[in-house]
Amino acid sequence: MKTILTGDRPTGRLHLGHYFGSLENRVKMQYDYDTYILIADVQALTDNFNNPSKVRENVKELALDYLAAGIDPKQSHIYIQSLIPEATELTVYFSNLVSVPRLYRNPTTKYEVAQKKELFGDSGEGITYGFLGYPVSQAADIACVNGNIVPVGDDQLPHIEQTREILRKFNNIYGETFNIPEAVLSSTPRIKGLDGNEKMSKSLNNCIYLSDTEEEINKKVMSAVTDPSKIRKDDPANPEVCMVYYYHKLIKNPNLPKVCSECKNGERGCVYCKKELVRALVEFLEPIQKRRKYYEERPEEVERILKEGTYATKKKAEEVMRRVKENMKLNYFE
Ligand code: TRP
Ligand code: SF4
Predict the structure, then answer these.
(1) What is the mean pLDDT of the chain?
(2) Structural contact between residues 318 and 86, judged by C-beta atoms closer than 8 angstroms
(3) Ligand 1: does its nearest atom lie under 6 Å from the Cβ of 7?
(4) Where does 3-192+299-327 sit in CATH, by number?
(5) CATH 3.40.50.620 in the chain, residue ranges
(6) Cα–Cα distance measured from residue 202 to residue 214, given in angstroms and rounded to the nearest whole number
(7) Which of 6, 99, 262, 327 is the most buried (most CB within 10 A)?
(8) CATH 1.10.240.10 residue ranges in the chain?
């Protein structure tokens, strides 16, 4: 059976961008793969080293979001990154296999540094060794369970490419040790915001969270960008330029053909259309929020799931590490 390794930084709640970008995929795939889902607290600290409470609180939130979204603890090992020292150890060995200029060229790292001026300076001159190197530790996350498949959103592709380079180099120098993993993208790897922005993202303040209440969803949908040429409610409009229509489509509203034709024929007002979207979103999120509530009320069960997931991951990582040490000639007293 092939192995999946993927995860997220615990820095905030998960939103529909995460869901359609990759969570939905992970939920589907977990039945056919040996699946490891990491809560990347070590990586979260690379840009939140001055805020450990934020990371700590979000570990629990992320676990709840995973379980709510349908990650099944009977199928998947959900684990906490910092409890796998094998990954930290591998990071050190891998850091010899990637040049510093190569790390600087990673477009996702560049984009993030530009977004974190307060932390890393106006032109990124204060970037830390840890942040620059986090793709190396990400390679170690994947390698320490010998992962084959990495379901992620498209922003992660540069990191997976870097992982592949590092692992190929490792295999060449020390002998065949690791699978060369592949990223798997969903059919919608990037979700637009209701504000028309190319990306749903916390920093753009345009997210619909999996745990949003009806009231929050209503507020966000009511301010969504529609076809600007439509002024009166019986003006015909073009749904293809409307974010409300985009979301009807995204969550597969069965009423979509009607939304489309009524919009084009000027038979549908935008407020009505938005209200219909709010209802559809609430309905879509209902099973997710029901599961969240179940686990929120059972913190000991969530803790047990994390403990068991971490234990299983640690076992696997120990096994991989024995082979690494042997191949690197570091198996001294064996
Ligand atoms: N970089 C991912 C994020 O920003 C988190 C992550 C850490 C990850 N290690 C990983 C994702 C390994 C996939 C595989 O959320
Ligand atoms: Fe968008 Fe609906 Fe208004 Fe058409 S009627 S522009 S699809 S909100």
Answers:
(1) 97
(2) yes
(3) yes
(4) 3.40.50.620
(5) 3-192+299-327
(6) 19
(7) 6
(8) 214-292
* Architecture of the structural domain at 214-292: Orthogonal Bundle (1.10)
CA quadruple 206, 208, 210, 216: dihedral, nearest 10 = 120
What are the tens digits of pLDDT across the range 206-227? Answer: 999 999 999 999 999 999 999 9
Residue 203: is its pLDDT beyond 90?
no
Q: Which residues form ligand 2's pocket by a CB distance below 6 Å?
A: 226-227, 230, 237, 239, 242, 244-245, 259, 263, 268, 270, 273-274
Q: Which of 108, 8, 105 has the alpha carbon at shortest distance from 63?
A: 8
CA distances from 75 to 27, 33, 242, 260, 312 (A): 9, 9, 39, 39, 12
- Burial, 50: exposed, middle or buried (Cβ in 10 Å; 0-12, 13-18, 19+)? exposed
Percent of the chain with pLDDT over 70: 100
Report in angstroms the alpha-carbon separations of 84 from 215, 310, 312: 40, 8, 10
pLDDT at residue 278 greater than cutoff 90? yes
